[in-house]
Amino acid sequence: MIALLVALFGGLGAALRFVVDGAVRARWSGVGPLATVVVNISGSWILGLVVGIQLFQGFSSVWFTAVTIGLCGGYTTFSTASVEVARLLQAGEVRAAVLNALGGLAACVGAVALGLWIAWIAS
Questions:
Q1: Does position 31 have pLDDT exceeding 90, yes or no?
Q2: Cα torsion for 99, 88, 22, 29, to the nearest 10°?
Q3: Rounded to whole angstroms, what are the CA distances from 22 to 15, 29, 33, 36, 77?
């Protein structure tokens, strides 16, 4: 049962990523890999919030697994972020590549922390 839920939530996360990515690209088409950054930061925030809710209020481990591994795993995309950094490097945009890699990582960790904090405040 849990594998089925993870698969369903993973598909939902992938579809959500497709929609958000398309919306960001349609609005800000010339701003580098912004869509992937937005997806990964928002997914990290959701992950932090869900982990915080589990820590401070608790809920079913089945749903926790489905949301964290399935939804957040299907929504966020480390591999795409890595490819975008590699493309920036290939284009000779070393500064943009380093900023994207390190800035994206820092922003995602900060988003997780914000989600945890919000869950803690709400508990």
A1: no
A2: 90
A3: 11, 10, 12, 10, 15
